[in-house]
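We store amino acids, tokens; thus:
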Amino acid sequence: MQTAFETEQAGAIALPPPYTLHRTDQKDVLREAVRLAPTDGAGTLVVHQSAGHLAFAVVLEPEQPLEQAQMAFLLGMVAVADALAAHCPPERSVRLNWPDELRYDKARIGGGRFEVAPNTGPQDVPDWLVFAAELIADRDHLAEPGAYPDSTSLKEEAFDPAEDIISTFASYMMLYFDRWAHDGVDAVTNRYLMRIDPPLLRGVRRIEGDRLVEVTPSSGGKRSTPLLEGLGSTGWRDATGPKL
């Protein structure tokens, strides 16, 4: 039975004017966006669609030093999560595993990646940044998908078409950058905290600088690894993409 989500044919993607679409047959959209970043600049949106894989990456040109600009990674994760939530059955949740894993109904569905222009120090304004998301589009090649209970796919969960997810992601990116500019970075990080998993039953969770802090009565506080050092620590992907 066909679902709304299909990857065999790439349809049109509705994007607002700041974006320039670049389709690629390269699965590693992060590397492709990094290649294009110095020449094509901000708003370049690299998209790869193939059986089993949906990936997209956007080039950013921040005005803040890296110390603040790195929070664009959390903004990107929120934009992906909210886009997925807008295009999935409403009774299930999209959650984030700090800092870079995306989970749907408690199963891994993908994650986010980030690249900073070379030789950028914490107080330097990066020439460019790249945020990338990789999602499991389908698991049709698996003889027994049930043997991989820790992952799921967009097709299995009856998500809307990939083009709609990408378009909504792009719109959320613009919205959250606007909120960051007018209301401060907390307007974005608070949305990230709303989706983080597992829920904190007692105490307070917040983001201080580039660290996740959990304050509980028993521990008095627990600090994570700094954001950029923590990327990849969840183990959501291997050399070929999101793990099944």
